[in-house]
Amino acid sequence: MTFLSSRRAQTGLLHAVIWVLLGVTVFTQPTMGLSTARYFLLQAGLFVLSLAAFYVNADWAVPHLLYRRRLVAYLLFLLGIVAAVVFAHRTGQRLLAAPRPGGPSLGGIRDAPPRRAPGPGPWPGSRVPSRGPTDGVNPAVLFSTLLVLGLGTSVAAVQRGQRDALARSVLEQEKLAAELGMLKAQINPHFLFNTLNNIYALTLLDGEQARRSLQRLSRMLRHVLYGAPTDQVPLGQEISFLRDYVELMQLRLAKRVQLIFTAPDAPAAEVLIAPMLFQPFVENAFKHGVSATAPSRIVIELRQPTAHTVELRVCNTLFPDPPVEEVDAEESGGIGLANTRRRLDLLYPGAYRLTVTPANDHHEYEICLLLML
After folding, report:
1. In sequence order, which residues have a C-beta less than 8 Å from that of residue 44 and are 6 or more positions away?
2. Long-range contacts of residues 207-211, Cβ cutoff 8 Å, at least 24 apart
3. How far apart are CA 247 and CA 286, in angstroms?
4. What is the pLDDT of the chain when averaged over all its residues?
5. 3 state DSSP class of 261
6. What domains lie within the chain, and their CATH numbers?
7. In the 8-state DSSP scheme, what is residue 134?
8. Tell me, what DSSP letter sits at residue 267?
9. With 0-12 CB in 10 A as exposed, 13-18 as middle and 19+ as buried, what is 159?
10. CB 36, CB 125: distance < 8 Å
11. Whole-model pTM?
12. What is the spatial distance between Cα 260 and Cα 350, in angstroms, rounded to a whole number?
């Protein structure tokens, strides 16, 4: 983390800028007929009072009065601060009013006459004569006090906004993690339920195929138990899981079902991907693209066009029941496909493209997913 990216460093820098701005505002005010030493003593007192007003306003008045909608009390507080600072500065100005040059001064110390510096200016010793104490309100002191109070209110508002934004961000992350956990918890039992049903059907037809299916299922369960609970898994591991799933489903397909599965043995570039992201789309094809009487066709193609893009294409036969216009990805895919759409929105916002369209003169149904990793 760099220096400027630290919140503490940014806060310290902001306060340093405020101190410098306040110092420039205070120490460039008219001299009011005071000698150099007495002028800086008076303005140093004003500087300290202004800083106290800034922090009391920002740290106490704004949180306890303004944010609690006690507006009248807050306005009275501001008026009291302005009156106190102006009165204190006016009192100090009268006490420190310099006697005539060479006369007795505060504590018995004589003040040297102000030196003259070439050119006009508000500093002590300039050629422009400084005004002595007046009975009215010093506009410069009033301006600096109002500036300090305004800065205090603004800083308190900005800091509260930052805290609220940080709290919202933390809550949003916690909500996102909880929602993703819930979605994965729904997808995994859904997948296991369908797979166990398939193996049960195989035990009635061919025991040897059922044993091979159980071996593949054990590898898949290892992926579900140890891979799916993590946020991301290697792409190669996800391809192996998908290949086991397709081979497991193929064991119960009739000969009239044409299955084409294409996937690289090893990814061109190893990247991380959310676990079990492809399986619901493939499951949807086996669930709704196979007929007990009519010839069926399922094409599954997984490829990696570039090092950071992965494309999945699933195409299956579209039967007239239900009608084409009523086929919907969420309705046809059930919980698994609907949750996968939601996971894509949460995990890859703006970084994926999913199209679900009829193909081949409305006799097939095609799903294309392109991920930018």
Report:
1. none
2. 209/251
3. 12
4. 77
5. strand
6. 7-168 (no CATH), 206-372 (3.30.565.10)
7. -
8. -
9. middle
10. yes
11. 0.50
12. 30
